[in-house]
Each structure stands twice: as structure tokens, then as C-alpha cells.
Amino acid sequence: MRRYHVTTFGCQMNAHDSERIKGLLEELGLGEAPNQDEADVLVFNTCTIREKPDTRLAAHLGNARMLKEQDPGRVIAVGGCYAEAQRDRIFETYPFVDVAFGPGSIPHLAEWLGAGGEGVARGAFGTAEERAFAGRLPMHRERRFQAWVQISMGCNSVCAYCIVPAVRGREVSRRPGEILAEVERLAAQGVREITLLGQNVNSYGRDVGSDFSELLRACDAVEGVERIRFTSPHPKDFRAPVIAAMADCQAVCEHAHLPLQSGSTRILKAMRRTYSRERYLRLVDELRAAIPDLALTTDLIVGFPGETEAEFEQTVSAVEEVGYDGAFTFVYSPRQGTEAAAMPGQVPEAVKRERIERLVEVVQRIGERRNRGRVGRIEEVLVEGPSRTDEALLRGRTRRNTTVVFTGDVQPGELVQVRIEDATSATLRGVELAAVAA
Ligand code: 5AD
Ligand code: SF4
After folding, report:
1. Same domain membership, residue 253 and residue 275
2. Global pTM?
3. 184 and 278 assigned to the same domain
4. Centroid of ligand 2 to alpha carbon of 423 (angstroms)
5. Theoretical Cys-Cys bridge with 306: which of 116, 136, 321, 345, CB 3.0 to 4.6 Å?
6. What is the pLDDT of residues 259-312, one digit of tens each?
7. Region of residue 160 (left: phi > 0; alpha: psi -120 to 50; beta: else)
């Protein structure tokens, strides 16, 4: 049997795309190889959001080239955002690549690969014009009780730093009926937690006569779905009906990942985020007033062109003011073709480094304080498996999306009550309640 291996870079949308790619390859009769070296078909599902994933990909492709030299029958396919961004150059830069495809062209992959990888259309490229939802493709999921559900593709925002709109195209919503049918199917298969995925989930539905609050309520009504998450919302489109739906729907988790990017209104404007610091903070107040015990996480960028020391300090103070449970912090990385890449006032690398170190320290300090506040509480945990560092312990996540490492005797997929006994900046430690009683 011919075997495939998929290497995934980037965000959850990409991870979900990889589930479709794997499902499709399995339908073509291929089996999964444990690593790149043992695979006949190597797929790289790429990301190009910052320079770092580009460099990591280059290293992986170096290995792929070597493997292909050993066995020219191997097929190398490069998909995802980097492939789309580099579409004119990819075969030039990496002549050993057989097939390249953008993030929207997964449904066409079978045509280029041929059944079982025979008769590969070398040099084929799936273009953004062929974009289609992969919703009808089979899906190879990592866990039987958790699933991602794509609700839209593309992005209509024009954030000055971001390459995504250029590579994933204009926003298109998936029909609500189709999404619900998928959620019902997943629930019937035993899925208890779903994560709705879109580049901007709050703008969902305008083009299909629906909206995100309706979608949340409809998903909440599906029997068996006990946890609903979503990522990412854009603060500019986070309106009252969605907040109300979050508050009303039992299954919707008490967590919002709300990308702030910068705490400075001037920088936010230059980024074209279309909200000010004040408006963002108001939204946080509204969310917290409606949803008790809400966890908030965010994305932050340091060193956007023109960012002064004082403006950076405003990002630090926003982190303190909001009191985030966690944050992804990024050094601004110029992406060719974006508005910001051509802006004057690019911040020197050393300054960016120094700023991100300071920011990470604050994020961790605040995260630890937030987590310490959970000690002594009982949290509902969805068990995911053994702890990564200690096989004797279990790992799972709370409704607020914090990782918990705990002692207990339960199976992955179960929901259990855990008493929280200790906390670090990123994890909680605890004991399963039944075990406490025993
Ligand atoms: N440089 C650094 N970070 C970026 N992000 C997006 N584009 C860039 C860039 N050019 C970050 C944003 C976004 C997250 C997914 O990646 O914070 O929310
Ligand atoms: Fe995801 Fe953006 Fe990376 Fe594409 S470029 S994989 S959308 S993070």
C-alpha cells in the first residue's frame, strides 16, 4: 500500500484543512506513514503569516528533496498559504515539487494526485479561483470527541500587516444548513466539543442570510454537543446579539479569543483594525458583564512600523488592564505585498526583540495571577489524554480553555469535575473529584 504523510504548519484552519487532506488521501487508498521518510506521498500544508514558518518550511523541503533523490517515484505536494502566496515562484524555487495547491483547492487535490498517487499531474497548481469548501470531503480527525467545523473561508478585512486576505481570498460563508448537518453528524459520531472556524467568525452569514448569533444558537440546540468554541472573532464585528447568544447558550464556553494586536489607538488605526483602544475595552466590559467568569485571550504584535516606545507601553498597559488569561505574542514580520511592509519607520530587530521579551513577561505574570485565582475551585474538564510530561497524570481542558493536568481515573472524551490545587502561567493542576472522595 502506498503511504502518505502530511506536515502541517500554521493555524487551526490549516490543521483542519489537513484533516480533509488526510481523509481525501485515505479515500484514494493511501495509508498514513508515521513520518516523512517512510511516505510515498509527502504533503506540506504551509503557512506564511510570518517569516518563521517560511524558514521552517524551507528546512522541511530540504529533507523532501533528499528523499526524492533517493526515490524519484515519491510525490511532493505543497499546499496552503505559502503555496498560494508563492504560486508564481514555487516550482522555480523548489523544482522537485510535483503539485502545489492553495488553501481553497483541497477538493481538487485528487485530480492532480491521481488515484493512489499514480499519474500525477506534475507542475499542477490549484488556484484561488477554484476555491470551494472541503465540507463534503471525508475527514481524518485526531480525536473522536473533538472536531473543528469550518463556517467561512477568506477574509474581507484589510489589516495592514496581514497576508491572509491575499492568500485566502474574499470572505464566503458556508450555508447554515450545511454547517448544522455536519454538526449533527459529528454529534451522532460522539463528538462533544466543536470549534467553529473562520477568519472572522463574527462577520459570518451576511452573504447567506444568517448571522453568527443564530448559528451559535442552532449549534447549541444540537443534542450531544456539550461545548462550543469559536475562533477567531474580530472585535470590530462583535455585536450585542452574539454576546447575548454566548450568555444564553449553555454549550457555548466562557471563553473569547479576542485579538487586540496593539493597545495604542494610533497604531490600531495604522493597522486598519477599525477600533480604538477605548472601544475594545468597552467590548471587554460588555462581554464580562454578560458572561460571568469569562476567560479572555488575545493576539498581540510588537514592532509594527512606526511603533514608539510609548505606544508599545500602551500594549503592555492594555494587557494589565484587561487581565488576559493568555496571549499569543508576535514580533511584527513584514510580508511582501502587504501595506505595512512598504511603510516607513520599520522597527529595528533588536528593539522588537527587547519589546517582545518585556511583553511576554507581563503576559505570563498576569496569566499566572489569573490562573492562581482558580485554585480551590471545581472546574469541568474534558479529558484529552495522558499528560505530555507525566504518563501517570491526565490532561484536559476547562470550559475556559485552560489546560489542566490532574490525577484521576477516567477515559479521554469524558467530562469530569476537577478540584484545582495549583497553577502556573499556562496550566492548572488538580484532582478529579471522584478521586478526592475516594
Ligand atoms: N507579523 C506578525 N504577526 C502577525 N500576525 C498576522 N500577521 C502578522 C505579521 N505580519 C498575527 C496577528 C494575528 C495572528 C494570527 O498572527 O496577531 O492575529
Ligand atoms: Fe493560517 Fe494565516 Fe498561516 Fe494561512 S497564513 S495557515 S490562514 S495563520
Report:
1. yes
2. 0.95
3. yes
4. 31
5. 345
6. 999 999 999 999 999 999 999 999 999 999 999 999 999 999 999 999 999 999
7. alpha
